[in-house]
Amino acid sequence: MESIKKYLGIAASIAASAMLARTIVNEYLPNELRIIVHSAFNKLFGRFSTNQTIVIQKTEGLTSNKLYEASSTYLCNRISPNMRRFRVSKNENKNSITFSLVDREELIDAFQGVEYKWQLISKQKNERMNRDGDFSLASEDGWYELTFHKKYKDVTLDSYLPHILEKAKEIKAANRRLKLYMNEHEYCWSQIDLQHPATFETLAMEADLKKTILEDLTRFIERKEYYKKIGKAWKRGYLLFGPPGTGKSTFVSAMANYLRFDIYDLNLKEVRKNSVLKRLLVGMKNKSMLVIEDIDCSIDFKNREKDKKNQSNQSHHDEISLSGLLNFIDGLWSTSGEERIIVFTTNYKEKLDPALLRPGRMDMHIYMGYCGPNSFRVLVSNYHAIDEHPMFEEIEGLLKEVEATPAEVAEQLLRSDNVDVALEGLMQLLQEKRNDGQGNKGNGKDDKDEKLVVVKKKEEEGLESSAEDHETEVVIGAVNC
Ligand SMILES: Nc1ncnc2c1ncn2[C@@H]1O[C@H](COP(=O)(O)OP(=O)(O)OP(=O)(O)O)[C@@H](O)[C@H]1O
């Protein structure tokens, strides 16, 4: 018994001395020396400990350490309000708040049943305020210590650290500012931040159609392996058609925000040669959308004969043509990148060249129609945050009778902050339309708003199909917008 007590006493004083020495090392030694002493400590005392610590430094030699950066990104998202201290900073560019670890504060994380302790060890002992009044970032000169039970070394190296790299990539992609690229100067893209706030929640569209489109997009981004297996380029085409002001551009922004894809808004009128077009398309990044608005007005579709002649006439050989565009999109361009969406919009589907509507070209044809009761409900909830109002019944009745675009309805709703006044204005507009007899639904002019039509490729559904049987029309629902 006496000897046990003696050994325990010795062990306790060794541990106390080790802790004291570690504190002295952390507090008073310069950074470089601290790293050397730390590793000596770990060698000396590591064999008595059940824990193992990995040091993740900011730089390794001259290259910056990806794991350090990924750890910072990952840990920002793991900060919990229960922690005693953590840093909160405002990111001026993104106008958002970010969290990070502060010197020596512990963060506990769990992965596959293993507990991990993270600590940021900062070179700077005192956080100082800089001239702008911001605290200088301790993490800039520090390193992370990741501590876990020795027996989980393999799972840490094989799974936990790769998990951190993967998660950090996802977080960065989600926080990234989306870009809108435009080809204003013929040869190259210029870019601005894409700040359109449209989402599928705020998009006024028949609920079933919205659901179908969201499922289609989700399936597309999850099917990398499937596209590889069937030997098909990982791209998908959508044709949006319908009258002006029904939300085609809004839809494109909602799509980009949902997928977190950049938009390349290609103005074909600015491009005169196929070779320039190719250069622009090849300059696109992955995870992006190629959008050509009003495709019917962009290229002289009617003149296919001229198109054919151009191919045989050397002087016109490089002139921009529909076949040049389509061939390149289907051919070489497909192999130069992946995860691409192509969107063509038009107000007049009937004007489009059949080559564009051919099976296999645009995977979904989506009709954006006039505002019906469902779309009206979405818009009024967006603009005035209400679900019910005594005027709804009458307005919905009128919307079934007359053609009003979501843009017209939205404009009326925007006119006043007072919902009664805004709805009154809308009702007046709809009544005038009815009395004028203009834009009445069911007048035989255009019955497209009577149904929502989606053309889907059967092969995408995993069905066997013959060459002629690649597309099918699916009526999604009755008129609602
Ligand atoms: N379906 C919709 N959902 C939500 N807002 C809409 C919708 N349709 C139109 N709007 C509103 O009307 C405005 C004009 O719509 P948008 O430019 O998207 O229509 P468009 O169909 O692309 O028109 P165009 O064919 O003339 O380019 C938008 O800024 C938006 O405020």
Automatic annotation (TrEMBL):
Pfam families: AAA, AAA_assoc, AAA_lid_At3g28540. Residues 234-372 form the AAA+ ATPase domain. Keywords: ATP-binding, Magnesium, Nucleotide-binding. InterPro entries: AAA+_ATPase (IPR003593), AAA_N_dom (IPR025753), At3g28540-like_C (IPR058017), ATPase_AAA_core (IPR003959), ATPase_AAA_CS (IPR003960), Mitochondrial_chaperone_BCS1 (IPR050747), P-loop_NTPase (IPR027417). Its cofactor is Mg(2+). One of its GO terms (biological process) is response to stress. CDD domains: RecA-like_BCS1 (cd19510). It comes from the Eukaryota. It catalyses: ATP + H2O = ADP + phosphate + H(+). GO terms for molecular function: ATP binding; ATP hydrolysis activity. The keyword Plastid does not apply. Residues 432-451 are annotated as: Disordered. The keyword Protein biosynthesis does not apply. Belongs to the AAA ATPase family. BCS1 subfamily. This is AAA+ ATPase domain-containing protein.
